[in-house]
Structures are given as structure tokens and as C-alpha cells.
Amino acid sequence: MRLFVIPLLLLALCAAQAHCKEESGPETLPPVPPSVIPTDLSKDVKCVEAEEAAPLPPQFWGSADFWVAWIRGVTFPTLVTVGPASDPIPGALNQNGTTVRFGGDQTPHERLGARFEFGAWFDDANSFGLQAGGAFLASRSVGSHDSSPGTPVLARPFYDVDGQQQNASLASFPGTASGTIDVHSGTRLYNVDANGVMVPVSNPVYAVRLLAGFRYFDLHDDLAIAENVLVSPVAMVPTAGQNIGVRDNFACDNCFYGGNLGFSATYDMRLFELVVKAQCALGMTQECVNIAGATRIDGGPVIPAGLLAVSSNSGGHERNAFAVLPELEVDARFEVSRHVVVSAGYSVLYWSNVARAGQQVDTNVNLNLVPTSTTYGQAGGPSQPQASIHDTYFWAQGIHFGLELRF
């Protein structure tokens, strides 16, 4: 009997436990903490920071260039001669012994100058901007200085319109006079311009800029002839013992105003850039010519006439002429840093219409208008020298070395 009681108790205990589990619901496991998968986001953060910290391209620039240039030479009539006293008309042209001391084509000398440019971009992509600049070539003179105590004869040749022959005004003659003749001619050039800039094509290899704006050029050209004569006291002439000074001055100012169109193309080779720039301005040249003469005899009053500048052509003369002014430039640039660029290049400029001083000289002379002539003040004869503006073309070319700052 006891053997049956023990198993029954075990069965009852098991049934009680099963009933308790059903009432309490299914067995729940202790919570497992979610797994943390370590992720290295440092690379993404760095990329975002790099994008935010990337600097904008330079928005301003300024450059300065040292310029060594050559300009077209000037053509002068024959202004100074020497010759023997034995010639029929000493010092005059077409005489066997006459030698030209100043006149003809003059070889151009190098001129020193500078160029400047400043610019700014209106947008962060450097697509639209404005640039302004200028350049100048310093004046450098050509000329001659001649003196003679009497031999050889020193003279200023001209054509006598009354006598219809070549003649000469003597600055020296044996036993009569000693003298000097100085000729000086100078030329200077400067310009300013302002252009809007648009960049229709730009990539890491090449870029194209279009230019449109305004250009102003000023070319000054002058010629001065100074003659000083000391007449011997024993000379058998009315001016014996007197000092005579004669001056002829010719000055030309050319002012160009015009609209400008152009482009520049840049080929980028990382540290090096090759830039080709072409532009052309169309507009008007205002040509102004001023002619003045002066003669002073032995400290007396100044007479407003010389030899080639007399009453018939003295004064101011002006005219306007349509002109074309193209320019071509080639530059090689080296990028020292993001903000500093050095460059070297070549440029050539052409100006279609300018007045040069040497071309305004008329050597046809009516001696009745010349104060040192024995017929000065007499009526008659043509009004010569004549005042008429003669123009020609002009060019300047040279090499330049520069520094550009970008910021």
C-alpha cells in the first residue's frame, strides 16, 4: 500500500507545478543588452569638414610689369648740314660738299616703362568681373649737337620759295661767325583702360575670357631746334658783334578714345600657364599740333618767328581722325604659390593714325617771314612754311617681366 502512495504524491506534485506554469505564462528570458556595432565615422566627418573648409578661389588680383619696348622711329627732313665755304651756296642741299648731320630716318632706341592692372570678380565662381589698368613708356630723346668755330660751315638748309632754289641759314662761316645747332626730339606714351570680363569657358586645363570696355591712349611727340650764333665784330655784315638765338618748336599730342573688344585664352600646365591675349579698340584720334618760333638778336625783344616756324604756320592746329588700335600679347606665367605669380612675355601694339613732330616741318620758306633775313617784313611771296597736319601710323613692341598677386 505504501508503494502506491509515493508515486501518487509525485504525480500530484508534478501536476501542481504544470498548473502554476500555465497560469504565470510562458517562461521569459532575462533581457539581453543590444549589441553595439562600433562604426568609425571619422572619415566621413573629415570629408565634410574638408568640403566646408575648402577656400574660395581668389577674388581680387593686381599685377605690375617692367616693360622694355621699342617704338617706330621718326622720319625728319634734313635739318642740319655742314660743308665747305667754297661751295656756291654753303650748307645747302644738292651742293657737292654738303654733308647731312641730322635728318632722315632715325633708328628707334629702347624705352623703359611699366604696366599695371587691377581686377575683381563679382561671383564666387570667377565668371564675371572688372579689370582696369594702364601703361607708360618714359620719354627718350634723339637728336644732335653740332658746333663750329667757322670752319666747316654749319648750316640749316631750306628751300627758298622766292628764289626757287635750295638755300641755307648759316650758323658759322670762316671769319664771320661761330655757332651751335641743337636738335632734340622726344616721344612718350601712356594709356589707361577699363574692361568688363566674362568667362564662358573654364576648366582645370584651359579657360577663355571675353573683354569689353574702353581704352584711352596718349602719344606726345616733339621737336625743338635751337640755333645760337655769335657774329664776329669785324664781320662786314649788319649784325656784326651780335648774338643771335633762333628757336623752332613743333609739338604733337595724340589722344585716342575708343571702345575695346578682346579675349584671352589660358592653357594651364599646373605650375605654368600660357596666356594669349588679343584686343582691338576702334575710336577717334584727336591730333593736336602746336608750332612756335622765336628769334632774339643781341638781347633785344623776342620776335615770335624762327626759321621753319614763322607767322604763316605758327599756332595750334587740330583735327580728328578715325583710328584702329589692335594689341597682341603672349605671356608665360609661373605660379610660385596660390597667391603669387611671376610672368614674362611679349606684346605688340599698332596705332593707325598719329601725328609725329618730324612730319609737321615744312622746309619751303619765304624769307620775307624770317627775322634774320635782310628782306624780313617785306610784302609778297607765298605763305610758307604751311601749317597742315600730316599723320602716319605708330607701333610699339617689347618684352615685360611682372609680378601678380591674387587674394
Description of the molecule:
It is a single chain. By secondary structure, the chain is mainly beta. It has one domain: Lipocalin (Beta Barrel). Helix content is 9%, strand content 58%. The chain contains 2 helices and 15 strands. The protein has helices at 2-24, 42-53, and strands at 60-71, 75-83, 99-105, 110-121, 128-148, 153-160, 165-170, 177-202, 206-231, 243-269, 272-297, 315-335, 340-355, 364-365, 391-406. The strands form 2 sheets. A 10-stranded antiparallel barrel has the order 1-4-5-8-9-10-11-12-13-15. Strands 2, 3, 6, 7 and 14 form a 5-stranded mixed sheet that branches. The model is unreliable at 1-16, 18-29 and 45-50 (pLDDT under 50).
List the helices and strands and how they pair.
Layout: H1 2-24, H2 42-53, E1 60-71, E2 75-83, E3 99-105, E4 110-121, E5 128-148, E6 153-160, E7 165-170, E8 177-202, E9 206-231, E10 243-269, E11 272-297, E12 315-335, E13 340-355, E14 364-365, E15 391-406
Parallel strand pairs: 6-14
Antiparallel strand pairs: 1-4, 1-15, 2-3, 2-6, 4-5, 5-8, 6-7, 8-9, 9-10, 10-11, 11-12, 12-13, 13-15
